[in-house]
Amino acid sequence: xxxYLAAVRNYWALLxxxxxxxxxxxxxxxxxxxxxxxxxxxLGLFRQQPEEGEPGLSPKRVQSRRMLAGLMVLAAFALVGFxxxxxxxxxxxxxxxxxxxxxxxxxxxxxxCINKIYGSFIGDGSGSVTGSEPQxxxxxxxxxxxxxxxxxWIQNRPSYNDIDLVIxxxxxxxxxxxxxxxxxxxTAVIDNSDPCPPDDDISIASIELKEPLGDRKVVxxxxxxxxxxxxxxxxxxxVLGKLVTGG
Length: 247
Known about the structure:
Layout: H1 2-5, H2 15-34, H3 59-99, H4 112-115, E1 117-119, E2 135-136, E3 139-142, E4 165-170, E5 177-181, E6 185-190, E7 202-207, E8 217-219, E9 227-228, H5 236-245
Parallel strand pairs: 1-7, 3-9, 6-8
Antiparallel strand pairs: 2-6, 3-4, 4-7, 5-6
Transmembrane segments: 12-30, 67-86
Keywords: Membrane, Transmembrane, Transmembrane helix
């Protein structure tokens, strides 16, 4: 499990508490499912046969106890699944931020869906380019028809219905992002003469185009094409496979 969860450990720290809960639940539920009479009281957990003279359970109570034990087993699995789900989302946000170019930063990894990657608060790409030496943007991601799942979990998340593209830039450069649409291309630049420094957080700008992107290229300075990302959360089979194999 360690390699898959190494990047983000905040939610996995809940595992010891969850493990204790699961063990306690199973300690009661499994014997109850086998023979509800064994768990009539706490000491019954350590007996395989009721003592002489001890009243037995009615069929109705046997059924109700087994139903309760079954629900408790389901709850135990739900606790484990909930913890894995939190880690899937946190790791997905971390991986998305790295794909957009974020560098590692200890403080940002504590909750990457909040601190490392988030919807832009101060820049949406609107406005004209005023500088004479704009800086390039590295990548973009198509949202229309794709709906990347990690966008659901980031702070200040965008709406799938209102955007065509997302462009991620370092948090220090978010205010200077400019996206200009023309008939044959979409141009994205940083309207600043100074290059963006490496950053440990990514601001995701939501871009709603006037016309569908179609065959138009997405370019930056000197008409260089941007890298098209296809980053997203790992699928559930992939997550479970990594947890089982430690991959």
